[in-house]
Amino acid sequence: MGSTPTVTTRYFQAGAFHVNVPAKEQNMGTPKMNMLTKAALIGLVLTTAACTRPDRFGGANDGAADGAGAFDPNAAANANLGGANDPKSPLYFNQTIGDRVLFAVDTSTLTEQGKQILVGQAGWLQSNPEYLAIIEGHADEVGTREYNIGLGFRRANAVREFLVSQGVPSTRLRVTSYGKERPIEICSDETCYSKNRRAVTVISIASLS
User: Fold this and answer.
1) What pLDDT, in 10s, does the model give residues 58-87?
2) How far are the Cα atoms of 81, 133, 192 from residue 148, in angstroms, in the given order?
3) Which of 32, 125, 147, 204 makes the best surface tag, with the fewest CB within 10 Å?
4) pLDDT tier at 189 (50, 70, 90 boundaries)?
5) How buried is 63 (Cβ within 10 angstroms: 0-12 exposed, 13-18 middle, 19+ buried)?
């Protein structure tokens, strides 16, 4: 007896695998798969699923539910800031010295409380000469964009001039204004406006050396 002939014009395809069906097992009416063909297809489906599962080697998604292992775009930057308990770190400057001063409505005049904060900022900057500072001026949402941009610059310059008067070299200080474009609180009353009328001293991680 010769070998059972097969046809190559009919096959089932799963992924990159072909299953040839013996000619004698093909029904000229409605096609029926025999048990061997079914078993082969099931095996191919399972193989394909295993290849496409991202956790097939285990642990790929471990901790995803509670956020562990998730990509944090700020992680690298935060790692460079040093600890909040390190007096030489920008985080210490932000949290302990204080990175902002507040202003009254439509004014760039420093308050006494603001001056006390800036004295601390000047001392920190003098003790850490490797850092630059960018002073951001902000305003509340009342008024036009153009007016608040100008007001933000006046507030930032008031802070810069005070820091220079305390001995910080002007070459280490830059000013910019965001006007009303970057509020930290959003509502239409004084509780938010008072927090948005501010100047923020942002410590640059880049060293001058």
Assistant:
1) 333 333 333 333 333 334 344 456 688 899
2) 31, 22, 16
3) 32
4) confident
5) exposed
